[in-house]
């Protein structure tokens, strides 16, 4: 099981096409329109952050991409194929880890290949490779409860990436971590993404996080969520912590904050500090 994606493969799989997408939650008169007329594409190996006020439908969009939610109108495809349900081709990482507490790290990571019938020797090699990649070599026999929050999320990412998904979906995966660990995990994610350039959609309400991670930023309005801006970020890679102090980074942060503070977004906006960080 080769976990390193070739340059050719990395740029030919994982194309996401969201076309006039609307999703309503609930039924009949109690139905709530969560997102409305979303229309954008994500190129193979692109890292796109979805940013918007609380309740604007960011997680709902990810749920549709994962195949957990049904589309009301429009369509969403990956590599031209409609999404009909969950698939290992679209791995998802949540804010709270979903690791099996009774399984050791190695068994958690190797669970997907085991379910697909991959032999023990091959899945052991694959698990060892991916654990080394996420910086957890030496922790293979630990249980999740013995790990820090950041380490648990590394295991979660490894468990998704071992399946070699075409698309990686991340729903505020670092939101429950302390500030220092969160910054570290952002750098870890970029290092992993550089080595395995998987198409990634990352949901967050943290402006600095979005600007630090993304190739492109999609900003959504208050519910029902609509795309109000798309920003191609000018920062090169690799990126380092000092980026957040650069003048262009600060300018873009102010621009995004102004978008989120527009009157039509104010009701759903999370409490923000003067630096634009969610509180």
Give the arrangement of secondary structure elements:
Layout: H1 7-10, E1 16-25, E2 32-42, E3 47-51, H2 58-66, E4 73-78, E5 81-82, E6 90-93, H3 105-109, H4 111-115, H5 120-133, H6 149-161, E7 167-171, H7 179-195, E8 199-204, H8 207-213, E9 216-220, E10 227-232, H9 247-260
Helix pairs in contact: 5-6, 8-9
Concise structural overview:
With 279 residues, the chain is of the alpha/beta class.
Explain this structure to me?
With 279 residues, this protein is of the alpha/beta class. The chain has two domains: 9-89 and 165-279, 3-Layer(aba) Sandwich (Rossmann fold), CATH 3.40.50.300; 96-164, no CATH class. The chain has helices at residues 7-10, 58-66, 105-109, 111-115, 120-133, 149-161, 179-195, 207-213, 247-260, and strands at residues 16-25, 32-42, 47-51, 73-78, 81-82, 90-93, 167-171, 199-204, 216-220, 227-232. The strands form two sheets. Strands 6-7-8-3-9-10 form a six-stranded mixed β-sheet, with helices on both faces. A four-stranded antiparallel β-sheet has the order 2-1-4-5, covered by helices on one side. Helix 5 (120-133) packs across helix 6 (149-161). The longest helix is centred in the C-terminal third of the chain and has 17 residues, at 179-195. It is globular, with a radius of gyration of 19 Å.
Rough outline: globular
Strand adjacency order, main sheet: 6-7-8-3-9-10
* Order of secondary-structure elements: HEEEHEEEHHHHEHEHEEH
Strand proportion: 15-25%
User: What is the CATH-assigned architecture of the largest domain?
Assistant: 3-Layer(aba) Sandwich
Question: Number of DSSP helices?
Answer: 9
Uncertain runs are: 1-10, 266-279
The CATH topology of the largest domain comes to: Rossmann fold
